[in-house]
């Protein structure tokens, strides 16, 4: 089981490195980050199920890094409650990921994935003309 997860993660990394980042606009980059966070959280949960402590730790560390990048990409010059709520949400996700790693808790990982999925769905639903007008920071 662990080998399947490792193979999937390697393929995912190759697609992200060679297939998406160079061609992505700002909106696309955020989408890739959200996809990457969701994938790393899913992978970490699989590692917990398989007893792969090293893989779990690496995947959670990468997920925390990605969530931190999403948080850092917020435009705090725009004073809106949305920016404040997203900042708090990203902070919460990072703390839950850290706690999931320490406690080896797949349920906490699923909680973070359940927060990321609708965020991603909302992000990709933004019409192209609105993306250009507003900029592409989540």
Question: Can you put this structure into words, describing what you see?
Answer:
The protein is mainly alpha-helical and 138 residues long. It has one domain: Flagellar protein FliS (Four Helix Bundle (Hemerythrin (Met), subunit A)), CATH 1.20.120. The protein contains 6 helices and no strands. It has helices at 2-20, 26-50, 53-72, 81-103, 106-124, 128-134. Residues 1-12 have low confidence and may be disordered.
Give a quick rundown of the structure.
The chain has helices at residues 2-20, 26-50, 53-72, 81-103, 106-124, 128-134. The chain has 138 residues and is mainly α. The longest helix is centred in the first third of the chain and has 25 residues, at 26-50.
Give the C-alpha Rg: 15 Å
The pLDDT mean sits at: 85
Major sheet size, sense and barrel closure: none
Find the CATH superfamily: Flagellar protein FliS
């Amino acid at each position: 089981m662990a080998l399947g997860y490792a193979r999937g993660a390697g393929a995912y990394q190759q697609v992200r490195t060679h297939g998406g980042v160079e061609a992505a606009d700002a909106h696309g980059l955020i989408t890739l980050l959200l996809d990457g966070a969701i994938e790393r959280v899913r992978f970490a949960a699989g590692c917990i199920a398989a007893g792969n402590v090293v893989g779990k730790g690496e995947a959670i560390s990468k997920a925390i890094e990605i969530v931190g990048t999403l948080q850092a990409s917020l435009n705090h010059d725009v004073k809106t409650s949305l920016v404040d709520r997203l900042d708090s949400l990203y902070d919460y996700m990072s703390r839950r990921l850290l706690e999931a790693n320490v406690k080896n808790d797949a349920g906490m990982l699923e909680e973070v994935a359940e927060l990321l999925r609708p965020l991603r769905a909302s992000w990709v639903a933004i019409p192209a003309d609105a993306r250009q007008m507003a900029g592409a920071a989540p």
